[in-house]
Amino acid sequence: MPDTAPTDARPxxxxxxxxxTTTDFRFDSRTAGVFDDMVGRSVPxxxxxxxxxxxxxxxxxxxxxxxxxxxCATATTLIACEPVVDPRVRxxxxxxxxxxxxxxxxxxxxxxxxxxRSLVLGDLHEDLPIENASVVILTLTLQFVRPLHRERLVRxxxxxxxxxxxxxLVEKLTEHDTLFNRLWIKYYYEMKRxxxxxxxxxxxxxxxxxxVMIPYHLEExxxxxxxxxxxxxxxxxRWYNFCGMIAVK
Length: 249
What we know:
Layout: H1 29-42, H2 46-60, E1 66-70, H3 76-81, E2 90-95, H4 98-109, E3 117-121, E4 133-139, H5 147-160, E5 161-172, H6 178-194, H7 199-209, H8 218-227, E6 232-239, E7 242-248
Parallel strand pairs: 1-2, 1-4, 2-3, 4-5
Antiparallel strand pairs: 5-7, 6-7
């Protein structure tokens, strides 16, 4: 079973359960409808990663500033941050999928708050306003930004962060060493089998993601962050090919 899996009757991810022609993975209405189950069963320790993200966000968030969740999907992280981050911190979620934002809005509406919260339809490949930020969160999002645009995005984040502000980054990684790369992938697919995915589902999703998700090495991510103006870098989570990182301006 997934770690600390929620017990609600959320829709189960069966998108790749039937044979289908390979097309690029899309965050469309089908994905939005089962997204929470999908990430809960596809990302190791997903719920602990969320909890740790909120812990970090709470310590860096400053009243009167903005907390951005870029690629906020269904707003799981923003909702998890709600009880632990000072209510005077504004939450801004940005995603390029209208279907995801509709789900996010419904989930936020179910968690009333006096906090200023907004959801913005926006593409991270374009210049988006990031200002007066104390925390920016990128959970499994940067890997979907085309490499050509990543430095510009991270530099934009660094510019929009206040001094001592932080970027919380979670990414899937690839390894330089082929032995470890092969082993981490094997263990990852074994985890997905334990979480109920079939061989067909694993294979078809891998093929759909092949051209849209491009993970970096850990060293590439660290170099990108320090090159773009962050002065401190540390990892805070690691499970084979998944990693949580934090960079401070």
